[in-house]
Amino acid sequence: MSNLLLLNGPNLNLLGTRQPEIYGSDTLSDVEDRAVEYAKSKSAVLDCFQSNHEGALIDRLHAARGRVDGVIINAGGLTHTSIALMDAISSVEIPTVELHVSNIHAREEFRHVSYIGRVAVGQICGFGTYGYLLAIDAILNHLSRP
Ligand code: CA2
After folding, report:
1. Which among 15, 52, 8, 46 has a CA at the least distance from the CA of 30?
2. Does 7 contact ligand 1 (Cβ within 6 A)?
3. How far does residue 145's CA lie from ligand 1's centre (Å)?
4. Residue 42: Cβ-neighbour burial (10 angstroms; 0-12, 13-18, 19+)
5. What is the chain's percent helix, strand, coil content, to nearest 5?
């Protein structure tokens, strides 16, 4: 059985409350509940954590070292700015899938850059909140490779 960690970064606690044309109408708790159930259906355990603070996300990653098999992270705006978060992902050596609700490549140029992408196994973006389920499939598939 795989232990997975889902991290959501700054402002993702606002999912479903504003900008539904970009981020949809599911709340973060809808998304997390669905993801936990989906992981369970795949015989995995998914733990969820959201923070608006870079350091708290880094602390959660450090705590996951040696305990978690795979990470899914929607780092929000920190995706495009945070070398510290990138270093944390790289230093804990846990396979990580980068996730975004929106298609960051079809948006403003500053969103085309991802520090997380440099250390992630791969990136899922543009599929709305369904991407959280795709990311579970992606990380489980990655973990089961020979
Ligand atoms: O598309 C994504 O998932 C993003 O990671 C969301 C970030 C954005 O900075 C990234 O470029 C792409 C923003 C999260 C803000 O979330 C909100 C959700 C609903 C209402 C307001 C903000």
Report:
1. 15
2. no
3. 31
4. middle
5. 50, 20, 30
Express each pLDDT in 53-107 by its tens digit. 999 999 999 999 999 999 999 999 999 999 999 999 999 999 999 999 999 999 9
Residue 124: strand pairing partners: 99
> Is 15 close to ligand 1, i.e. is its CB under 6 Å away?
yes
pTM for the whole structure: 0.97
Q: Name the token pair of 49.
A: 């954590």
What is the rounded CA–CA span in Å between residue 25 and residue 22?
9
Q: Which amino acid would we find at residue 100?
A: H
**Residues with catalytic function:** 23, 100
